Amino acid sequence: MSENTNQLTADDVEFLGRPLHGFLSVASGSQPPQPRPVWFEATAEGTVELFTERDSLKVRRVGRDPRASLVVAAPVGERERWVSVAGRATVEADGAHELASRLAARYWDLADETRARDLAAILATEQVRMVIHPETVHRYAY
Predict the structure, then answer these.
(1) Rounded CA gap, 9 and 46, in Å?
(2) Which of 3, 20, 35, 65 is most buried when burial is the number of CB atoms within 10 A of its CB?
(3) What pTM does this model have?
(4) Residue closest to 130 by CA, chosen among 1, 12, 26
């Protein structure tokens, strides 16, 4: 069953709360979108957030054109399900390290010394939060 709305539902937020990879696309003028796998968090306010380095290509592109989308799909072996969020993206200077720490705990076993060092390396760099403000949410569940 496919459905379209302009906001995340409680079911969407539950699904997006799992440690799944999202595929982020940002507008890039005449170039076709080039999705990148990212960690993300759906918030209580109905936005979707991710973190990235301040000087990343994503940030530069969003500075030129704020359109962005994120697609998240259930893994192989589960019934087909996906959620796509599209809207205006903003870049926020605050909260990126806290977000990175929360997401690292979701996606990695931080008791593993290698992963703990990986997180420390992320936290040692200047990060920003990218926030997608949904204008269109598409979903499909079989």
Answers:
(1) 9
(2) 20
(3) 0.92
(4) 26
